[in-house]
Design a protein that fits this description.
This protein is an all-alpha fold. 77% of the residues lie in helices and 0% in strands. It is elongated and about 60 Å long.
Length: 142
């Protein structure tokens, strides 16, 4: 039964850590929300750049310039979305710390995650429907 004191001490430390880490008000949550959003955005950026790097390795040489242009445009669009999301998150909110306000904040976080996921899906669709210059039909000179 030596484990009981250890387990009790562990639970007491875990509870103290949770209480210390829990924000006291909605204003205290803003840095946490911003950090969570930045982590999600970094993950999205990594996903996009990894996919693009793999795509560039598989692309035929004649298609490389067009592919780099597409990838640059996609990264710019993603950066713009990320900036807009951070701006929305940093706008002053006069929401009290009640269950309804917490639900609104969760809904806003979910909306931002959905926007990012949708953008990545659009980029993937763009990639799949894009043809290389060799596959494009020739223009008639008539």
């Amino acid at each position: 039964m030596v484990m009981r004191p250890f387990l009790f001490a562990f639970l007491a430390h875990a509870l103290a850590f949770c209480l210390a880490a829990a924000p006291a008000s909605a204003a205290d949550r803003r840095p946490i929300e911003r950090n969570l959003l930045r982590q999600q955005q970094q993950s999205d950026s990594f996903t996009l750049r990894s996919r693009q790097a793999a795509e560039e390795l598989r692309a035929p040489a004649p298609d490389a310039a067009g592919l780099r242009d597409l990838h640059t445009r996609q990264r710019q669009q993603q950066d713009m979305l990320h900036s807009q999301q951070l701006q929305r998150l940093q706008q002053p909110r006069a929401l009290p710390d009640d269950p309804g306000s917490r639900a609104l904040r969760r809904a806003e976080r979910q909306r931002m995650e959905n926007e990012s996921a949708l953008q990545l899906q659009q980029f993937e669709l763009e990639r799949r429907t894009r043809r290389s210059p060799l596959e494009r039909p020739a223009l008639n000179a008539d």
